[in-house]
Amino acid sequence: LSLSIVKLLYINVRQKKVVLRLDLNVPLKDGVITDTTRIEASLKTLNYLIKNKAKIIILSHLSRIKSVDEIQSNKKSLKVVAEKLQEFLPKTKIIFEPLNVNPKLKKFIENDAKFPYGTSLGDIFVNDAFGTCHRAHASNVGIGQNIKESCIGFLIQNELKYLNKLINSSKKPFVAVLGGAKVEDKVKIIEKIAKVSDYVIIGGAMAYPFLEIQGYNIGQKLFNFDKDVVQKLFKKYQKKLILPVDFIVTDNISEPKIVKSYNFNAKIPENLFGVFEIDQFANGTKKICKAIAKQTKINNSFTLIGGGDSAAAAKKFKCESDFSFISTGGGASIAFIEGSDNVCNPNVPHQNYENQY
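Below the sequence we write its predicted structure tokens.
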């Protein structure tokens, strides 16, 4: 997959006003940032713009604001992110503007396709928010298609480089490991990966539908699914799909009092769970994570994590540095592999740029 997207290096940003879309949606606990990965990943583009004496207007978000109370309480304010960014850029003055309460952003909040307010802020638009670039939102597509010049930053360029390497790799065996809660959302990714891979390992809640259609009792369902879709997928790729043979189950995920291991030769009780965030259920994810990381070292295998919870798991088990690449966007990675037209392509036609990364 190759998209025609302009790179930052092809744009003259010197002393220009640059609207920079970043994904600074960092995790918080009690108002404190627990992981600065996304902030640090943005620094290369920021430092390049600063070096070129550009005036930078950063647009980002922190979670989703669903009520007036969330605005007034500032629980989802980017102020804490601005303060942390200031620590990483001590020689640059960071000014925080709480735009989510600015009346001028009414059109933006309503997802105005052209986002005239954002477009008017600068001369050039740089999209470096890989985690959101697969969505046709006003803050990326709206600005990108309605500003004089637009391009991608170094973070997205790097993301696309490694994702292209994954898609075009000829190394064998090609093994994919997939998890997650909703099979319907990942049917395309399973099909696309199954076509090019030798094996697809499916774990966690994502495995339940494939087990249920075979007659196994999976306990309490986390979601409903289309059995016909799952059955067709299973029938088509049965020889490639590898499913769990046992699970750790409990009576209560929040306050587990009964935690047992069951295999499919035993009766599976109700309330079937399994999440790596809780240590009592983390061993399976931990072993798979470390086994994949080990292949990078021993066999020089190309190993990529598609962001999201998988990246969090690698960090928890202290093996993130052993992977070839960890993406900053799970949904964007999946959309790219699926071949979605929206991924990181918010630009109007340009000349004098490459089609490769």
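The longest helix spans residues 283-298.
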